[in-house]
Specification:
Layout (H helix, E strand, L loop, with lengths): L2 E6 L5 E6 L5 H13 L9 H4 L19
Antiparallel strand pairs: 1-2
Amino acid sequence: METLEFIIYPDGRVQEKVTGIVGSSCAEVTAAIEAQLGQVVSQEQTSEYFAQTDTQPLAATNQATFSEW
């Protein structure tokens, strides 16, 4: 499940936490929100950011060897 969590501090800072999105696509999801919020001061990637999605199909390769005597 994809979730966006926002913590708004009394001084106006907003902390955003994204979970459930694998890879760098979380940046695409949050770009419009961050543009409306203002200047991004820092970013910290989680392990989900560095994980790879399982979208590439697995290919089995067979190699036959023939020899002539």
